[in-house]
Each structure stands twice: as structure tokens, then as C-alpha cells.
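Quick board copy: two proteins, each given as sequence then C-alpha cells.
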Amino acid sequence: MNSLLLVKIIATILAFALGLIGGLLPIKLHQYSPFKVQIGEAMAGGIFLGGGLVHMLSDSQYGMFEKKIQFPFPAVLCGVGFYFTIFLEVILTPKLLKMVAKKESKKGTKLNQESSLESSTESSSQNEIINEDKHDATNERKVLVSDTKGEETLGHHHNQISEYLNSKTSSKALPIILVTALCFHAVLEGLALGACRQVNESISITIAELAHKPFASFAIGAATYRAYSPKLLVIFIFLFSLGSPLGIFLGMLAATFGSSMVSLVIISLAAGTFLFAGTLEAKEVLNGDRDWIKYIVTLMGFALMSIVAIWN
């Protein structure tokens, strides 16, 4: 067994295992620290940026140069991958989440209005018998209305995974949307690793993927745990964990039966997804409290991948 195949097999096993572990943690951890999760995401963001820029994009450019291709195809394909990921995760997924949140908000408002009507009917009937309870019934209705407004406000903040982790809703559709989007992302990342033809490059991509895998899986697990039973949570996490192995397998097929040009194209496209994870996703993580700590951690992740490039 050659070293390249061994690295890909180990990466496949670890990606699947970390996906399962990260996704099943919400069953055990009923209370967790969002800041610790954000620290891990910040480190993964720096690793992704380093992997995309320092390793994948530069390697594909060098491969194109060896083929005496003057046009900067790697940079163009990287941009295509970057903007495709933006469409998937910044435009399409948030719109679907907002549609779901809007429907839930309408359902919640309708239920709260019905409960308010019932409570007002009961209070009015009591007032006919005991007039002294009128003031208390009015105060109770005010509290109910204020609680309803709070729930409606929470319903409009599910356009980012980190915001969903901090919310208190339990949508049935949100986990399905998250699993679909992140599975597709995982397959793209796996394609890059499977298409690699060099050991050092495959190791750097493996580091980036494994650093990100448990946090994405944890987000899906937290969303699924609130809306479904533990059995369905296991099914969702199992499907998500198969994303990277599937991508690796497809990438290996493309590298085996296709030319080296196919591998370079796949790596260039995947570099765009890595740049997205290292820039726009990291920007969301850096917002909030103690942002300077998360910024330093992001730099550490990028520095780690830059140091790894010395041995490449």
C-alpha cells in the first residue's frame, strides 16, 4: 500500500469518526459553552484559509505551470468555487431558513392569539363573579403579550448556525436544511482530498478538513436534538459523516480514471470553498465578545498551515 492511499484511508476513517463524535455530543452535553465552540471554529477558519491559499491554490497553480498553461485557470476556478459556496451558504440556505422561521412565527403568533383569547374569556367570566380580580387578570394578559413578542423575535434569527445554537427553538425543517447544505460542502471538501496526487498536499487538506468536521457536525447535532428524537439524530449525523468519505471516494475515482488535469480542476474549485470557510465564516465567528481572542486563534490556525508548507 502506497503512502498516498494510506493517508486517504486514514483521513476517511477520521473524518467519519469525528463527524459522529461531534454530532452525538449534544445528547450528552445538555449545556455547553458557545464561546468554546466559537474558539474551535475560529481555529478551523484559519486552518481553512491557510489550506486554501498556501497549499491547494499554490499547488494547482504550479501544476498548471508545469503543463505550460499561461492562463490563470486555478485562480478563476477558485473564484468559481468561492462564489458557488456563497450562493449555497449565504443566499440559498438563509432564504430557506427564513422561510421556515417565518412559517413558525406565524404558527406561534396564531397559537398565542388563541391562548390570549381563551385567557381573556376566562378572566371576563371571572370578573362577572368577582370584580376584585380584574386588575390581576389584566396584568396576566400583559405578561402573555410580552412573552409572545419575545418568541416572535427569536424566530427571525436562524440565518446562521451559531445563532441557531444560541436560540431556543426546535424547528423540524431546520436540521434537514443544515444537513443538506453541510453535506454538500463536505462532499466538495472530500473531492479535493480524493483528487490529490501528492502525499504532502493530501496531509494539509486532511488537517483542514478534520479541524472543521466536529464543529459542523456539532451544529447539526444541536439543531437535530431540539427537534427530533435521539434515533433520528443518529441518522442525520450518520448521513452527514458520510459526506467527506463519499467526496474522497469520488475524488479518487476522478484522479484514477481521469487525467492529472481533472485533479487540478477539482483542487482549484475546492480551494474556493476553503477560502469561503476561512474568510466569510470566520467573520461571523469573530463577531461578539472577546473577539481579539478568537482573532489570535484564527491567526494561529493560519500560521500552523503555513508552517506545514515548509515540508511541502
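And the next:
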Amino acid sequence: FLQAANAFRTEGATLKAIATFKKILKLDPSQYDVYRHLGDLNAERGLLSSAFQDYLTLGKHYLKAGKSKEALDIYKKIVSQDPSNLDAQQRVAELCLQENMQDEATKVYLQIGRERSAQQRHVEAKDAYQAVLRIDPANSEAVQFIEHFKKTDGSSIPPVKSGEGPAGCPPKSAEPLNLLSEATRRIEAKQFAGAEAILNQLLTKEPGNPEVCQLLAKLHLQRGDLQVALGEYRYLAGAALRAQDYAKAEALITDFLAVQPQSVAILELYGELYEEKGDAANAVLQYGKAIELLLEHPEPGMPTLHEELFQKVIELAPESPTVKKLTALMHGTAVEEPLAQARSKTSVTPAAVIPSSSDQNTHSTADVASHDPLSATAETAPLQDRHVVYSKSQPMSAQSEQSESTEQEPTALGRGFSLPNTEPDEQRTALSPATDSAASLSIGEQFQAYMKAGQQAEAEEWLSHLVTAQPDHAAARELFGSLLEAKGDTAGAALQYSRALELLLAHPQDESQAQQAGLYAKVKELASASPLVAKWASTFSLKPQAAVPAVEQSVSAPPGNTIDPETHYTLGVAYKNMGLQDEAKEEFALSMQSPEFFSDSCIMIAVCLKEQGACQSASAQLELLLQDPKCQGAKAKAIRYELGLLYESQELWSQAAEIYESIPTFHDVPQRLESVLARRSPAQSVTAFRYAN
């Protein structure tokens, strides 16, 4: 788990890294060093409140274990990120004394005394200065403060400066106050350059002055430097929130939202503020606004942030109407038509057979004798489902030669399927069979010939080309699924079986019912968490399930799996980052059986396939994922983008153009779409790629 968490962190998957680190703590609370990683990750996300909580927890563990040096480092880290955190400064001073670091302890106690005095918390300031005197009885600043405290009984204590004697000194110059007033006036007059110069001058004299920092943040906000202002307002509001100065925190938050009402980070902070105040209703309202914005515009590098915030909403108000509204938005009340269904409406012309116009709209599957796809022949199948034609009189070697010679032609066997440098009519002529009377082998017989010859790789390549050219060929997809299952590619097999079943259900025949039931059983066995299984459950719940479909090699059933899906998923990520792609895919294939990890597992399998150079299989994996009705919003856009990149790598320009047109404003899609459209062959019309598979 530790290795997996570090791998997530390296990849920039912050939320997954945090989840994995928390899993480690759940399994073994003694691994408290993990809190350092959690703190660092939350600090990177800008959630300083959560980061400091993690650091403080780690510091307490170090103190309990007697590791004072390690605890000192942690508290120093907190102070470096939040100088206003006086509790952390107090810990630093105490630990410096334990480590015999007298000078550093003195400096810290003096700083605490000044801060407490400025906040009119004179009793606490007195305690800090008395601690200084215990270390250095002659310290002039501490002596001066204590004398004034005794004379005035703790009221009207003037500010003191380091180095002033106990006899007192001239009153502090009013220059800083006048400069702050002048800077404020210039900001209100939109004289930003002059105001910024004054504020920078003040910060040089007094680094970290909260009033100056707040004015500088206001300047950046009003000048339109929103990114800079965002960081400053998050820091200042977060510091006020930690100090429980809720009024100041809310003022800062509302100031920023007045200019930038769609800031997810500030809305999230606003939710935290209400949560701290115990106002769950308003916290849910602010978190809900942030989630809606994230669904429209995902946070870069944090694709699941909306899910994390949604979990907070559920914990705060599970029965709230906001929960129902957000659930509908996240899961989609009006589901887009899956790409695979849209593409199957018009099939691509097969490589070897061009149907006549009267047969163009035929979509039914072949009449299958004994419900066996192997017996389907060219004579009984509809034209959309016909296979590549070969002469029966040709020996196997001749068929292979013909296949090889066909592949050497300048034919694009991709999803758009076109012949370059030819007009559509010429393509039909080039692809037509020599004679209509030529006898042919069925797809099943051709497949059997490959298998008997021990040419599994060649069979896979042949079927891959076939289902690409003829996406509506159910029998070919079923055979392809059986081949992939036999070689252990359960995800790929489930995809092909699913598509074959979709085709059969779209154009049902009485003879194919047993075949449909068998395919459903296969999909349920290989990908039980797939949304298609739930979709088809009612259709097959009352029907007896048939024998396993299509010529497949017997595969022994795996032993009962007692490991939870999260462990499989985490192991898969660890294997992937070690370069063990095959082992990673095995783990992801197991984790994808859980609905919770189905989509992430599909994505990771696609990543592994892409890294292995199997871009076509990776594309198929993402296409399967896009069939999930739950795949909506930001995640769907990201998947479509990755699918477009895969199409580009395969030079499937039409498919890339189609997928990019569905997300026209995502990342660099406008530039990619322009490039893809320029590369696409003129013969490939928009209509062609709209329905290509």
C-alpha cells in the first residue's frame, strides 16, 4: 500500500494517494509517519487546515514516543507555513528548551509575546515574556514589558521593541499606520502601482504583517490578479478559521466571492467555515455550489474532487434535497447515447462484400443452426454480417497468401475503412468479389482453420480486422470474445461478448434466444460489475441459461477470491508502476468486478494496454467504459479525450475527429481537432465517421 500511495503521488493522483495513505493508517495505526505524507498532500492542495491537523497529529505521536527532535521539525514546519499559529510557536519554544537550544527558544518566546500583546491578550503575553526571563533574566524587552504590566495591572501595555531599555523609549512612530492608510486610499482610487510599492516597503520592514498581507491580497483581487489573490485569500481566511476568528474568515471569503463567485477553492473553504460553526445547512449549500462547478469544469489534476466533497455533503445532511439534486447531476438524469450504440446505427461497408441498396438497412443477425455461430455461412447471414469471402477450393496456404496480399494493399482497415487515392465508386469496384458464384468458408470454419494450425495470434489479428471493418457482426465478436477469454484477457472478452449480445438483442430472432442467454452468462461471469449486467438482468432472470457460447477453449474456474477489490486495485497500481503490466491487468480485472472500482479499473487496464502498445485494445476498453450510464460529466470528458489520443496514435483520424467534436472545449481539443481534420482523407465524410466503430 505504501508503494502504491507513493506511486499515486508521483503520478499526481493526489486524492488516490491520500485515500491509500489513510488505508495504511486504518490497517496499522502505528504507522503514524504517514501523517507527514497526508499533511504534505493536503498542503499541496491548498487545504492548509487539514494539513496542519495532520502535522499536529504527527507531532503528538512523536512527543508520545519521546522523539522530541522529530516533533520539533514538524512544529517548525507548521510555523513556517503559518507564522500566525501561536500554539505551534509555543510548542517550538518548549521543544527548543528540551533540546538545549536556548537562543532559539528566546527568539520564539519573544515573538509570541509580541503577537499576544498586539492582540491585547496581555496575560498570555506576560507568560511568554516571563519564559524569556527564565532563560535570559537580563533581556531588556521582557523586563520592560513585565514592568509596564505591573504598573498598569495588565492594561494599556504599550508595544515594545527589541533592544529598548527598561527606562522606556519614545513612542512608536505613527509612520506605519499612515502608510497603511495611504495604501488603502490608493487601492480605493485604483492607484494600484503606488499602493503596491507602499505595501512592499512595509513588508520589507515587517515581514508577515497580517494587515499588510490582507491589503496586498485586496489589491491583487481588485486589480484582477485572481490566481495570486486566490492563494492569498485562501491563506488568510484559513489562518482566521484556524484561529476561530470566524467573522474575519467570512469577511475575507465573501470579499473574494463578490469578485469571483465561481471559485471552487473558496466555496470549499466557505463550506469548511460553516462546518466549523456547526451550521450544516449552509455548509451543504456551499459544498453543493462547488460540486456543481466541478462537474462543469473539473479541477486539473483532481478529477474526483467533486466526489470527495459529495461525501462530505452526505455525511452532513444525508436527507437534504441538495443530496438528491447533486446525485441527479452526477449520475445524469438524461443519459447521453453511448458512443457504441450511436456508431452501430449505420455499419461500415465490409471489406469483402458490398451490400446492394435493397439490403442496406438489414441489421438482423444470421440464422444460426443449432445456435452455433460457427455454422453461420455467407449464404445465410445478412449482408452486414457477412464474412470475408474465400474460395473453398483454395488450400489453407493459398488463403493465407491471399490474406497477406490483401493486407499489403493500401487499404485502411481502421474504423473508417477507406481506400486512399480512390473515389467511393472505385472502392466498391476494388472490393467486390470476383464472382457471385464463388463458394466460401464461413467465419467459424476460417476460425477453426486458424486454431487447428496453432495460429492463435494470426486468428486474433484477423478477427480484430474483421470486427473493425464489420462492427455489427455478432458472430465475429462472439468468436473474438472466446479467443480473448482463452488467452486470459477477461476485460477484452467481456467487451466483445457484450457487443455481440447488444447486437442480438437489438435484432432478436427466436433461434438466437439460447445464444443470447449464453452470452449474458459470459458477461456476468467476466464483468459482474458492468452496468450492462444490471441492465440485462430483468431480460434473462426468468430464462434458462444456455451453454457457454461459441468455440472456446475450456478455462478452469478461478478459486474463490477472498481479497477485497480495493486491495486488488491498489496492487494493480503498484504492479503498473513497477512495469509489470500483465500482472497489473490481472489485478484490475479482479477489481473491476466491484461496482465501486469498475470505472477506475477499466481506465487503468486501458493505460496498461496503451503502454504495451496495444492501442486498439486500449481504445476498446475505453469505449466499453463510455457505455456505462454513470460515466457522465467530467470523467466522461476525460475518457473521451484519452480515447481521442488513442485514435490519433492509430491514425484513425475520423474517429478522433468524432470524439473530439463531442468535447470541443476540453483542454487542447480545438487545436487537436483542427490537426485531425486536416489529416483526415477527403474521401472520409462526416457521415462516415459519425457511425464508424
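Board note added afterward: The chain is about 65% helix and 0% strand.
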